[in-house]
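1st attempt posting a full record on here, be nice pls
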Amino acid sequence: MILKGNIFKYGDNINTDLIIPGRYGNIICNDELAKHCLEDLDSSFVEKVKLGDILVVGNNFGCGSSREVAPIVIQKCGISCIIGKSFARIFFRNAINIGLRIIQSPDFFDDVEDGESTEIEIENDVFVNTVTQNKFQIDATYPLLNEIITAGGLINYLNNQ
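the predicted structure (as tokens):
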């Protein structure tokens, strides 16, 4: 699998309130909510992001509340994959459950710059940044998670079994 897109790079401890501010909790349409994705962190994010772009984040991404809509709005904005040093457990599971590709890789953060275009080739338990030719290990559970993501999320995966 090959992912191509521009990098949006953000640091550590980005919580779910920064992903989708709580003041929009009365909006029930996910497409409408997505218009406010990351606006308190980067007010121009939704204007710049394009289908297929890649979010690269530091440690503890998605911490805070268990707001299930946080990964949904990221996906609705067009992000194809989030690669992070580490993720809050509940955010990680919520992302997998909706079919948002999410990869934990502590070293990838230092291999890319915000705004650069990149291509990532994913094969089994390794992915390659084809711009730098650097290879990165993926957690051993990734093949199963990849099946769930490819199916479009946990419910679709279970329905296909």
